[in-house]
Amino acid sequence: MIRRHRIERIGLAIGLVASFAFAGAQRLAAEEPTYNELQRQFESAYAAKDYKKALEVCEKLHEARPRAVAHIYNIACMNCLIGEKDKAYDWLEKLADAGYKDAEYLREDADFRTMHAEARFRKIADRISGKKPAKDDDERKIKKLKEDKPKIADAKLSPRDHAAKINELTQKLMSTAAKDKKKALEFAMEAHEHARALETMAKEDDNADPRLAQFADARLGLTAYNVACMYSLLDKKDEAFDYLNKAIDHKSFDENIVDQIKGDSDLDALRSDARYARAMERLGEKVAKPDPRFSDDNLPDVDDMPPEKRGEAIGQIAQELVNAGDKLDADEKLAKARVALAHAKKLMDLDDKNPRILSVWSLTNYNVACMHSLKKDADAAFFYLGRAVDAGGFGRPIKDSIENDSDFDNIRKDDRYDDLINRAKAPAAPRQRRSDPEPEPKEETVDPAWKVTLPKKHDASKASPLIVALHHYHGNMDSTTDRWRKAADEVGAILLTPQGTVSMGDGMFHWGRDIDTIERDVMKAIDKVLDEHKVDSKKIVLAGFSQGGWATWAIAARNPDTFRGIIPVCGRVGPEIEKDLEDPDAANLRVWIMLGEDENSSVVESNERAAKVLKKAGARVKSESYDGVGHGYPENHDEELVKALRFILD
């Protein structure tokens, strides 16, 4: 079986630019298990060796996410374990069709031990290990051009003719490189062939002018250098270094070649590679060893797959990071974010001018920057955040995303932060576009949506408490429902999870910055629940995490008579909220503040000020700080949420 951590690594479920229409959606989650609940049921059944039950649940998981390779794999496992080998083989064939690559894991998996010795199993395993996607025309063209053989040895061309051809082709590649790098590479290679023909003429003609050999050497260096630049721009590093070293062998074309290489942005893709330092050492230039944190060469290996599946993989990982909350530490989250970045890098290799791909490149770099900031690695955070800014952002102005994202609280006091914000404010440079440009992806404002979850032992004839839980930036109502469901069940409360109305794609949302709109939408959802269910209006609790925590403070400060209490988790309290908390009715609130010990100091200080205002007014306030936690829930969050709810409701 592929266990959970492997499922998260290879799962393919959410589309690259999918925008889920949740408007008005209200599902009684108590009647239908969520995806995460099904996953837990599957793992429990497997652990209990109830393979028929595990198969039944896994088939439901597959229905929910038919493209998730892990579920195809596990259905094959369960069929093998219950003796249905033919069905197991059918699913293994589907696994191979889906692009699964880990033949070694398949061959070692004990779940298939009854099939390991069979020729049919070995054939499928061999197919998985040897399957390669077909190369497209452009890739075949580049491979052909890699054959470094002089193809031009036309005796009818004089040295002057070859020199003229080199100049003509060099001009063509310079005018073409910005819009068609592959075509520019063809021009560069052809020019290099003319230079090699010149070299041949100089070597074979004993009576040739000595200046011809010098001229040929310079042109060999120049044309090899241009080929290296084109390969570098195409991120073909092996070939780029091959030709860069050829250029260094014939460096007479540029007496300032060290400065030329150091200042040429065409070679930027090579600088983080250790071979760059070795090449420069040949010229007597010492280069510091590249920092592996900033090198795309060190990104995780990812499977070959079509672009649309890469998009799905990126979306799936983004959703996993959202759903993980504090279940994963910063290192584990960073590892996941880097897998998404590796997929995005593959997309950039295909077309680094496509607006949608640039948007994904920006988003994945942004997420890696978030994780480095949470790890308090400012250098890495600013590096990846800078790339996100340079790529143009991924929807709303990226400056707004950075300024409203608490993941960056650890770097806001760094001198580089203001410089980066100023860069983000600047209008994006015009992008090279195709003749049929695609529209820029934009954030979409959607209708308010929410989910209502009834407790397991709900008695519709009795008034129940109501918990209103608000998600974080990049969150959604589903992940928030999963986070709060157990605690709500424990206190017998109806759970309402509203969703932000700004769609970021891939099933992620945020609340925007207009507190008037947020307040209206949340209060409207509460009124709807009060109309449709029997609720104890004196026991309504408002809670939220991160951006949802900020909204919790703001809405409660404006409507203190609506709520019995609030549970803000890592939510910043702005000065305007502090002023609203001076309302005499706020003294009736019960407040349980949840903060990580390693939370950003500005968030902690703002909560301390708010607590002081409320305590002075006579409110019941309790603040909990959790060891080893930064911007997130404590590890035993279910237990802590129940404590907080009992503090407010009892």
Shape: globular
Tell me roughly what share of residues is in helical segments: 40-55%
Strand content: 5-15%
Strand arrangement within the widest β-sheet reads 2-4-3-7-8-9-10
Oligomer: single chain
What is the fold named in CATH at topology level of the largest domain?
Rossmann fold
Q: What profile does the largest beta sheet have? A: 7 strands, mixed
User: Structural class given helices, strands, pairing?
Assistant: alpha/beta
CATH top level of the largest domain is Alpha Beta
Number of strands: 10
What is the total domain count? 4
CATH architecture of the largest domain: 3-Layer(aba) Sandwich
What is the number of helical segments per DSSP (H or I, 4+ residues)? 26
Write out the CATH superfamily name of the largest domain: Alpha/Beta hydrolase fold, catalytic domain
Terminal-residue CA separation? 45 Å
Write the layout of secondary structure elements.
Elements: H1 4-10, H2 35-47, H3 51-64, H4 69-81, H5 85-97, H6 103-108, H7 119-130, H8 137-145, H9 159-176, H10 181-204, H11 210-233, H12 237-249, H13 257-263, H14 274-282, H15 307-324, H16 330-350, H17 355-374, H18 378-390, H19 398-404, H20 415-425, E1 444-445, E2 449-453, E3 464-470, H21 477-490, E4 494-499, E5 502-505, E6 508-510, H22 515-532, E7 535-545, H23 547-558, E8 565-569, H24 575-580, E9 590-596, H25 601-617, E10 620-626, H26 637-649
Parallel strand pairs: 3-4, 3-7, 7-8, 8-9, 9-10
Antiparallel strand pairs: 1-5, 2-4, 5-6
Helix pairs in contact: 2-3, 3-4, 4-5, 5-7, 9-10, 9-11, 10-11, 11-12, 12-14, 15-16, 16-17, 17-18, 18-20, 19-20, 21-26
